[in-house]
Amino acid sequence: MSTSIEQKIVELLEKEDKTAINLLYKYYSDSLYGVILKVTNDEELAQDALQETFVKVWRNAKSYDPKKAKLFTWLYRIARNTAIDKLRSFNNRFEKEVQIDQSNVYILPTASLNQDVLDLKEHVGRLDEKYQIVLKALFFEGMTQQEASEELDIPLGTIKSRLKIGLRELKKLYVH
After folding, report:
1. Are 127 and 169 in contact (CB under 8 A)?
2. Phi-psi region of 55 (alpha: psi -120 to 50; beta: other; left: phi over 0)
3. Which of 4, 87, 107, 136 has a CA positioned 20 to 30 A from the CA of residue 118?
4. pTM of this prediction exceeds 0.70
């Protein structure tokens, strides 16, 4: 995408000109949909999240600062956060049991599983929420500490401290 088009979109956003949304959709919707689909792994959720993303972009257009991030980076973050929120909301509403015959996960013989960690998610769920959030982001969602810091809007030092304390508290549950 040429920088002149990006500059034009930014100018239109600053003026709250609705043409900006049309241009954003034209030039960025495919890429943002791809990001969202990768997070949600569900086309219907991804379509909802994409629409919600553009609503958030429009509502928060004044908060975009070209000095802090490129337009796509700003859009990417909004899209990714919206997708994660949408997925969490969906999963919370529709907790489903895993059906072995419908699973695409490799079936492992139980002898190869470490029986001591099968209930790890349950134990993490017993921790204070601030530690749960960090542990889930790092271990279950595969984020780096830096990504978790940005995603959760928590300083990197706090992420590291909560990780350390959370792991220490988790260890207490297993050492009994």
Report:
1. yes
2. alpha
3. 87
4. no
Q: What CATH number matches the domain at 3-93, 1.10.1740.10, 3.90.1150.10, 3.40.50.1000, 2.30.42.10? A: 1.10.1740.10
Q: What is the pLDDT of residue 172?
A: 80
Answer whether CATH 1.10.10.10 is correct for domain 113-175: yes
What is the spatial distance between Cα 45 and Cα 50, in angstroms, rounded to a whole number? 9
pLDDT tens for each residue of 3-56: 688 889 989 988 888 899 899 999 999 999 999 999 999 899 999 999 999 999
Query: Token digits for 20?
Result: 């900006």
The two domains 3-93 and 113-175 share their CATH topology (first three levels equal): no
